[in-house]
Specification:
Helices cover about 30% and strands about 10% of the residues. It is an alpha+beta fold and about 450 residues long. The chain has 2 domains: about 270 residues, no CATH class; about 170 residues, no CATH class. The strands form 3 sheets. Strands 8-7-6-5-4-3-11 form a 7-stranded antiparallel β-sheet, sandwiched between helices. A two-stranded antiparallel ribbon has the order 1-2. Strands 9-10 form a two-stranded antiparallel sheet. The N terminus and C terminus are likely disordered.
């Protein structure tokens, strides 16, 4: 399969992918509406080495903790005929039903059950993603481990007195440790043109969804409920004309947009809620990308520190003596993460956005808040996604687990940006008011991080 860059950070795939080969990849090879070429895992993959040891059974993610409770008998999951263990799992992991987004492209292990009439549902919170398919044999589960990155599981949908999650490693990492996931165990979100059967029309090209993605290149193969004014998305689009498969740029995206409900496309009755919320989709796109950058920063910083110790030992120096190469490696992964945390590449909205499921209100109600009631989870939705452009993922366990050298780098660089000391011109999207608000919110809600700040001295990393 050939892969060609088409600018703006997007990539397109053009050659066909045999259906039987797709089926063999396993469900996570096509997670979050993606379709990427398979790659056999190597025994010497960096993340399988110390200090990451990805396949080690010792885990620290919400699903592993829930599974331990199931094994100990201190937690039970209720089964119900319509959705199996879905709603019980959502409750146990505190995942809101309003986060439901629907994918109708055949981009999953359970592809034979997915179509525009029977889309796959994805639910998520800050750390966990759940996939549910009508009549599916398993729930598709992925969770973020604070040290290892994305951990993949399935849960049988057959009724069982002691249901347990099954972890999957190499069969998922055939695709989920490549360049599209920052070369770490992570997630990928794609936008694909889809035919009436749900098959991706790969000859028409596909798009990676990242912070630079304009709205018009997002959500192909997904249903979208919500309003976005005169802006267009690829949501709700089914490619029916042969001409459009060859010239997708000629497709009129307007008729499929601004849908307050989805019953014109399929029967929503079997689903937990009848929505595929636009705001939930926007948040999903942001956090998938940032999760991967956090994992990459974690892994690469730990490798850099490990190598520094080895080099210093060989040279007879103190193990902790800093090296220029270590600083460079920390900077190379810290700077992209900083830009993503501060929404440096976010395209400006041309019209207001609104969802339909109540997701925005439910998401915004979560903390933490400062003494003035401000939170990084508050939306703007007029000109940009969030009111205060600093990612809510800074409050996650994965961010807190970043190695100290990386946290020091990010804190010092964020101080430079928020105080106007950065003169690179890469953060001009932040107004003086934005910078002051983010500083104040973080000082109150993230004191363990902002203690690294100093108003008197902010050395260049």
């Amino acid at each position: 399969m050939s892969e060609l860059s088409v600018g703006r950070g997007q990539r397109r795939l053009f050659s066909a992918f045999p259906a039987r080969q797709i089926h063999r990849l396993g469900w996570v090879a096509l997670w979050l509406g993606t379709l990427v070429p398979a790659r056999l895992p190597a025994s010497d993959t960096p993340y399988e080495q110390e200090p990451i040891s990805y396949s080690d059974p010792l885990l620290d993610d919400p699903v592993s903790k829930l599974d331990a409770e199931l094994a100990a008998g201190t937690r039970a999951l209720d089964y119900e005929p319509a959705h199996g263990y879905l709603q019980a799992v959502l409750r146990a992991l505190q995942i809101p039903e309003s986060s439901q987004t629907l994918v109708f492209s055949k981009t999953s292990f359970q592809r034979d059950r997915i179509s525009p009439e029977t889309p796959r549902a994805i639910y998520f919170n800050d750390d966990v993603y759940i996939g549910w398919v009508q009549g599916g044999e398993v729930l598709e589960v992925s969770a973020v481990d604070s040290q290892k990155g994305a951990i993949f599981y399935s849960l049988s949908q057959s009724r069982d007195d002691t249901p347990r999650f099954q972890r999957h490693t190499h069969e998922c990492l055939q695709c989920h440790d490549g360049s599209l996931s920052q070369s770490v165990p992570g997630h990928i979100m794609r936008s694909v043109y889809t035919d009436p059967r749900g098959q991706p029309v790969l000859t028409a090209g596909t798009f990676v969804t990242n912070p630079q993605s304009p709205l018009r290149e997002r959500f192909g193969g997904w249903y979208v409920s919500g309003t976005h004014g005169a802006q267009v998305t690829m949501g709700n689009l089914i490619v029916r004309e042969k001409e459009h498969r060859q010239h997708p740029e000629r497709i009129n995206l307007v008729p499929q947009g601004n849908q307050s409900e989805l019953s014109r496309f399929f029967d929503p009755q079997p689903y937990v809620v009848p929505h595929s919320d636009l705001i939930a989709l926007q948040v999903l796109a942001h956090q998938v990308f940032v999760h991967n950058l956090i994992t990459k920063a974690n892994h690469q910083t730990r490798f850099a520190v490990r190598d520094q110790v080895s080099i210093n030992k060989a040279l007879g120096r103190p193990e902790t003596e800093p090296l220029d190469s270590t600083r460079s490696r920390i900077r190379s992964v810290g700077e992209p993460l900083l830009r993503a945390l501060l929404f440096a590449d976010e395209p400006r909205l041309e019209a207001p956005l609104a969802g339909t499921s109540g997701f925005a209100a439910e998401f915004s109600e979560q903390g933490p808040r400062d003494s003035r009631g401000r939170s990084l989870r508050q939306f703007d939705l007029q000109q940009r996604l969030f009111r205060y452009p600093c990612s809510f993922l800074i409050h996650t366990a994965a961010f807190d687990a970043l190695p100290e050298p990386q946290l020091d780098y990010l804190a010092q660089r964020m101080w430079q940006v928020l105080n106007g000391e950065d003169t690179t011109g890469r953060f001009t999207h932040l107004t003086g008011e934005d910078r002051a608000a983010i500083r104040e919110i973080l000082r109150e809600t993230k004191p363990d991080f902002t203690r690294r700040w100093s108003a008197e001295e902010s050395p260049t990393p």
